Amino acid sequence: DLNTRVTRGSMDEIGTLAAAINDLAVELHRYRSNRREFLANISHELQTPITYLEGYTSALRNRLYETEEEKEQYLQIIQLEAQRMSKLVSDLFELSKMEDGKVALVFEEVNLVEVIENALLKTKIKAQAKGLHLEFNQTYDFPGINADGLRMEQIITNLLENAIRYTENGFIKIKLSTDLGVARAVIEDTGIGIPQEDIPFLFERFYRVEKSRSREFGGTGLGLAIVKQLVELQGGTITVESQIGKGTCFELTFPITRRESP
Ligand code: ADP
User: Fold this and answer.
1) Three-class SS of residue 66?
2) pLDDT digits (tens, 9 = 90+) for 88-145
3) β-sheet bridge partners, residue 179
4) Which residues contact residue 38 at a Cβ distance below 8 angstroms, ignoring those fewer than 6 apart?
5) Contact yes or no for 146/217 (Cβ under 8 A)
6) In terms of DSSP bridges, do strands 133-136 and 171-179 run parallel, antiparallel, or are they unpaired?
7) Using one digit for the tens of pLDDT, what is the confidence trace for 78-96?
8) Ligand 1 centroid to residue 208 C-alpha, Å
9) How much is the pLDDT for 7?
10) Residues within 6 Å of ligand 1 by CB
11) CA–CA distance, 30 with 160 (Å, rounded to integer)
12) CA of 162 to the centre of ligand 1 (A)
């Protein structure tokens, strides 16, 4: 029973042991309630698309549509929800592998300018579709970092996709700079912003500021948890600043590769 506590009656070895057992009990309790919450979240996240799948499949079977367009719409919803489930499952799998330390990163000298340009290429169409301007002015002359190039691209792409998803007007800017052996990348948007009270929880699994809005845009609530893990696995940091209605700014830092002098 986790509510049972060993009474610490003395400061000798037995007393110290009692204190250690109590600490372990607290830790175990925290672990179990985290796990419970996590499982509850997963069930909830899967339940929503399943409800759609069931509803629209039976609507089709019972021919509850009046026009061909309507039928096509139902089919589209089914496809979208199946894709969402698939994304959720693959994100979960990736996150669990990372947490078990089972993600093999391939470290090499990485050029952040190249990484950012690749990520911009992938997200440009989504930005254009919303009339958002993507800005990045940097020449190739930027110090290298020791990282996994593809994982870096995944991080930047994810942050860019979020910026596009949560911005209606204006621009998204990426800036690179260096500071005391550190390379810094800043991704800034003029979007809806994030309330101050949500910021401490932003990188937690399944945390969303506005559930319905995130769902509407195809989010799983796992993106930033994955990003943070990947950043930290590569020795970097990630922080965020935001103002409601003004925009959000994610900042990444990574140690610059030291070059041996010839
Ligand atoms: P999601 O899949 O819901 O986008 P993420 O883990 O990527 O999940 O992000 C968590 C939450 O953080 C989002 O639901 C959203 O509320 C908020 N968020 C992330 N990036 C931004 C941004 N650039 N502007 C405003 N809100 C953001």
Assistant:
1) coil
2) 999 999 998 988 888 889 999 999 999 999 999 999 999 999 999 999 988 778 999 9
3) 182
4) 205, 206
5) no
6) parallel
7) 999 999 999 999 999 999 8
8) 6
9) 74
10) 162-163, 166, 189, 191-194, 202, 207-210, 214, 219-225, 248
11) 34
12) 6
